[in-house]
């Protein structure tokens, strides 16, 4: 097994158009994530699927269709699935222990949302000492509104990827990652 893990963050039905919180470009991001996952499997990388649940919340309700991992990126039977209740996939989960036990040194992050769970997970991974690679075109987000100003999803995504690239690791496209 390699010393790399693919962290598939929150690619759940809730984010698809039929869900309750659809993201801009989620299908294209998931298609790229599927390519990254397939490449990781072929190279012996650990693939870890992470799913968000919000007990009592309006979305990601435990047991609902929206909380299920989307069929585009379904885990294989032997792949771990980590359930989390916070944006940071390491917070109050066994993710760090799993990665440590498997000898992982580098994490490749794909998923949703760029400005929340992808960002929080990548930063936490870096803080824990993992080398991080975020695959920007295998992540998606949505328009955000603050103080009467709406920021389009493409700008939200670009700003967060720029922040990660500035200090928290590499940010690359799918084709670049697969060509390595």
TrEMBL record:
Keywords: Hydrolase
Residues in Isochorismatase-like domain copies: 5-145
Pfam family, one: Isochorismatase
Domain of life: Bacteria
GO molecular function: hydrolase activity
EC number: 3.-.-.-
Enzyme class: hydrolase
InterPro entries: Isochorismatase-like_dom, Isochorismatase-like_hydrls, Isochorismatase-like_sf
Protein name: Cysteine hydrolase family protein
Organism: Paracoccus simplex
Lineage: Bacteria, Pseudomonadati, Pseudomonadota, Alphaproteobacteria, Rhodobacterales
């Amino acid at each position: 097994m390699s010393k790399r893990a693919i962290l598939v963050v929150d690619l759940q039905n809730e984010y698809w158009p039929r869900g309750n919180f659809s993201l801009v470009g989620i299908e294209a991001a998931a298609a790229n994530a599927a390519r990254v996952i397939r490449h990781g499997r072929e190279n012996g990388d650990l693939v870890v699927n992470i799913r968000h649940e919000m007990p009592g919340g309006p979305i990601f309700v435990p047991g609902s269709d929206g909380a299920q991992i989307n069929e585009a990126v379904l885990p294989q039977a032997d792949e771990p699935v980590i359930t989390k209740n916070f944006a940071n996939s390491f917070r109050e989960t066994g993710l760090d222990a799993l990665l440590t036990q498997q000898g992982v040194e580098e994490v490749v992050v794909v998923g949703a949302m760029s400005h929340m769970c992808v960002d929080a997970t990548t930063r936490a991974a870096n803080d824990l000492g993992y080398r991080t690679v975020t695959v920007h075109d295998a992540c998606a987000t949505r328009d955000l509104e603050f103080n009467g100003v709406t920021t389009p999803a493409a700008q939200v995504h670009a700003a967060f990827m720029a922040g990660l690239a500035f200090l928290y690791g590499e940010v690359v496209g799918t084709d670049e990652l697969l060509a390595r």
